[in-house]
Amino acid sequence: MILWIWQIQYHLENECELFSENKVAFPPNIEIQSCYKGIAVIRGLLLKEKDAEAWKNLLTLQYRTELEATPTPDMDEFRKVFGLPNFGQVEDWERILGILNVNSYSIQRMERTTISPT
Q1: What is the mean pLDDT of each run of 10 residues along the chain (118 residues)?
Q2: Residue 21 domain flag
Q3: In a domain, 3, yes or no
């Protein structure tokens, strides 16, 4: 995997700075997909204090569906597991998670097995 300088700089100025200030032990004791999603939520939350215009634009995105098939995790507990129990409001965590769930598409890596069709 190649990391570009701008990616490293973005990380240093955002979640890395937040983790350092709060003495967060990283990575948290959670599954890697949840960890990545947590970082995405944190990056969204950091916009609130670092880029008001981007935060305003982010909040215009849909964050709920009519189906609501996926139950919302306990974000208060998630913040604690992530080592950031006092960062942001639970409602903002839930909203950003909803925005990510409704407006993004991801494919999880599947390991090839003997019964795999490909």
Answers
A1: 61 80 82 84 92 94 75 81 90 91 69 46
A2: no
A3: no
Question: Could you tell me the sign of the dihedral formed by the alpha carbons of 82, 83, 85, 89, in that order?
Answer: negative
56/70 Cα distance (integer angstroms): 25
Full DSSP string of the chain? -PPPHHHHHHHHHTHHHHHHHTT--SS-SS-HHHHHHHHHHHHHHHHHHH-HHHHHHHTTS----SS--SPPP-HHHHHHHTT-TTSS-HHHHHHHHHHHHHH----------TT---
Total domain count for the chain? 1
Question: Quick check: 24 and 84 in contact, CB under 8 A?
Answer: yes
Residue 20 exposed, middle or buried by CB count within 10 Å (0-12, 13-18, 19+): exposed
Is this prediction's pTM over 0.90?
Answer: no
- Residue 34 domain flag: yes
